Amino acid sequence: MRVPIYPQDLNSGSGFARLAKCLKRDWPGTEPIRLSEAQNLLARCFGYSDYHQIISSNSPKIVAYPSIADVVAQCMETLCDELLGGGRAKFFDLGKLQTQVIDWPFLQLSVYRKQYGHSDNRVVAKAVIAELIEAFLSTQKAHSEVQPDKRTHELRLNRLDAMLGHLSVNSCAAYVSPPMGVCTHQSPYDANRPSSSGMSCLSCGPSIFQHKL
After folding, report:
1. Of 12, 38, 174, 202, which residue is least crowded by CB atoms under 10 Å?
2. How would you class 46 by CB atoms within 10 Å of its CB: exposed for 0-12, middle for 13-18, buried for 19 or more?
3. What is the sign, positive or negative, of the torsion defined by CA atoms of 114, 67, 131, 18?
4. In terms of Cα–Cα distance, which of 186, 184, 181, 190 is closest to 157?
5. In the beta sheet, which residues pair with residue 200?
6. Is the pTM for the entire model greater than 0.85?
7. Could you give the 3-state DSSP secondary structure of residue 200?
C-alpha cells in the first residue's frame, strides 16, 4: 500500500509536513523524536522506504490510493513495530495513539482533498472508525449456533433466579409437598403447573399465584 504524495504536499504547512508534525507531537515513545525522524517514519507509514524516496520520486500520475481507514491501520502497524520492535517504548496507550492518528489531518494531502473536496478531517473521522470496526468484526469467526444441553440450561435458569432473589427449583422442592414440588416465584412460571394455595417456600414466602382446580 502506498499513499500518493505530490510536491505541494511537501511544502511547509502542507499535507505531509503537517502530518509529520502531528506524529512528532503525538509520539508516545520514552524519548521525543526529531522532525526528520518523524518524516522518515511517516514515509514508512505511507509505503515508502524513507523520506528521501518521497522527495526523489516523480509526481504520481496514476490516481490510485488506499482508503483513509487503511492508511490509519498501516500507520498503527508501523508505529507499533517501531515502538516495540525498535525498543523505543515498553508500554504505551494503544487506544489513545489510535485516536490521535485518526484525528490527523489526512485530508490535507492533495489526493484526499481532491476525493472529498475539502480538508476538514473531522467529517470523515467517524466513517474511518466505522470502517475499522467493520474490518475487525469481519476477521472474527462466527460462533456456531449450538443449543445448550439440559444441564447448561438449568444452570442459566438457576443464575437468573438467584439474581431475582429466589432459590432454584431443586432448593424450593425441599420445602413443599408433592405434586407441587416447586416455588411458584421461580422463573419461568408455568400457569398450568400444579400448585396450591396455602403452601409456601421458606425462602420466597407464600405463593402469590392462585389456581383453580
Report:
1. 12
2. buried
3. negative
4. 186
5. 206
6. no
7. strand
